Amino acid sequence: MKKPWAGRFTEQTSKAVEAFTESISFDRRLWRHDIDGSIAHAKMLAKQGIIPKNDAEKIVAGLQEIAREIERGDIHFRTELEDIHMNIEMELIKKIGHIGGRLHTARSRNDQVALDLRLYLRAETHAINDLLGALTSGLADTAEKNIDVIMPGFTHLQRAQPVLLAHHLMAYAHMFERDRQRFQDGLKRINILPLGSCALAGTSLPIDRGYVAKLLGFDAVSENSMDSVSDRDFAIEFVSCAAICIMHISRLSEDLILWSSEEFAFVELPDAFTTGSSIMPQKKNPDVAELMRGSAGKIYGDLMNLLTLMKGLPLAYNRDMQHDKEPVFQAVDVLTRTLTILADMVPRIIWKKERLLSTADASFSTATDVAEYLVRKGVPFRTAHEVTGKMVRFCIEGDKKLAEITLDEFKRFAPEISKDIYSVLSARESVNARNSFGGTAPAMVKEQIKRFRKIR
Ligand code: ARG
């Protein structure tokens, strides 16, 4: 087949080179955006009197028909036509004849591909926004439903202080809400029209870029034609948002993997989201959470791929940039799949409430409460810390809990102590007392959930 750019060539492209340079095997995903962009472009060309109105109507109708055919799977894309742009253009010419050749007026594949990628990432941003919304709603609902559940909070993965399970879950809700906002913010830089920049320098034809922007729902028209065809910052930014998000997912996965072990025994993952072992009949493995945790490597790789691809490229368009699509698509696929399954799984996790509470009550987790009790009695915090540390050692040596120290023994550690000390020693009292803004007291966490529901 004759290539649209064959005019100055005397020799056929070698098959190996065709296979090496093609992108249709992956950029076919952009077909709908490519057609939307072309329809808007044709309408603008007609409005400006650059092509006859009749021809534009035929072009638009032809493109719409091609869209239906692609949807039905009736179009066979051809490697020798390189990419989605030339495949669709040639299909149009096949359908409506040489007037189809007017479509590429005042346009280059360089601004066309930039347009398609922006339209694609705009749509994917909306989809990811919805998935993150579903996930954070699920976390907030689960938090609300389990508002009375107490668990140990950890630092250094050592039991630290009792917290509400709801507080722990809401920490993740806040991470994912920041992700959502980061993706949304990226739209400001994605939603700018590059079309009309042409190859790199603009065109001598009287185009109306503002009109195309309006038809396609762009907020603005790009200012510099060279920047427009060589900029992939918006894609790098999108993938970096995805990288941060999958990092958050990997942290939540890690918590769930640990918690579902017999050692922790904090949760049971729903059967539908776990798998068995081919040799050990008793096993129920958290493979889904592990695969989610492991997915981070793919998206980090995609980000490195894009940054390295763009590094050191001279202005303006370079063919290297054709390699931008696979990492972008992979990042979208991995994140979308992971978020979908995570949002489904979270509301179905079974929380082992008794075990969570008994673990929170053990291991001197209310030692800080004793120190703060002494502060309220006028003891400087450093002294209170030291004295409480001695009580802990006394308990370890005598194999008892803080609550088992007698009042006389307490007084020997600090004469300021009276019998109200016994009201600060349980996990529940500890949690109830942490009512500083943003703290884990139930009243605070309830307010936190309420405010969270308002911001999104
Ligand atoms: N398939 C190309 C890409 O993805 C489209 C742009 C090609 N432009 C060119 N001048 N060869 O980047």
Supply the number of structural domains. Answer: 3
Question: What is the gyration radius calculated from CA atoms?
Answer: 31 Å
The structural class is mainly alpha
CATH architecture of the largest domain, by name, is Up-down Bundle
Q: Spell out the helices and strands N to C.
A: HHHHHHEEHEHEHHEHHHEHHHHHH
Mean pLDDT: 96
Helix content: 55-70%
- Please state the overall shape, judged from the principal axes of the Cα atoms: elongated
Which sequence of strands runs across the widest sheet? Answer: 1-2
SS summary, helix count: 19
CATH class of the largest domain: Mainly Alpha
In this entry the ligands are: arginine
Distance between the termini: 53 Å
CATH superfamily of the largest domain: Fumarase/aspartase (Central domain)
Point out poorly predicted stretches: none
Largest sheet properties: 2 strands, antiparallel
Q: Give the number of DSSP strands.
A: 6
Written overview of the protein:
This protein is mainly alpha-helical. The protein folds into 3 domains: 6-105, Fumarase/aspartase (N-terminal domain) (Fumarase C, Chain B, domain 1, Orthogonal Bundle); 118-147 and 165-346, Up-down Bundle (Fumarase C, Chain A, domain 2), CATH 1.20.200.10; 359-455, Orthogonal Bundle (Ribonucleotide Reductase Protein R1, domain 1). It is built from 19 helices and 6 strands. The chain has helices at residues 15-21, 24-27, 31-47, 53-72, 84-96, 109-145, 165-190, 209-216, 225-230, 233-259, 287-294, 296-310, 325-345, 353-361, 367-376, 381-398, 407-413, 427-433, 442-455, and strands spanning 150-155, 158-164, 192-193, 220-221, 267-268, 350-351. The strands form 3 sheets. It has a two-stranded antiparallel sheet. It has a two-stranded parallel sheet with strand order 3-4. The radius of gyration is 31 Å and the shape is elongated. The chain starts with 14 loop residues before the first helix and ends with a helix. The mean pLDDT is 96. The structure holds arginine. Arginine binds next to helix 6. Arginine binds at residues 23, 27, 83, 109-110, 113, 317, 319, 321-322.
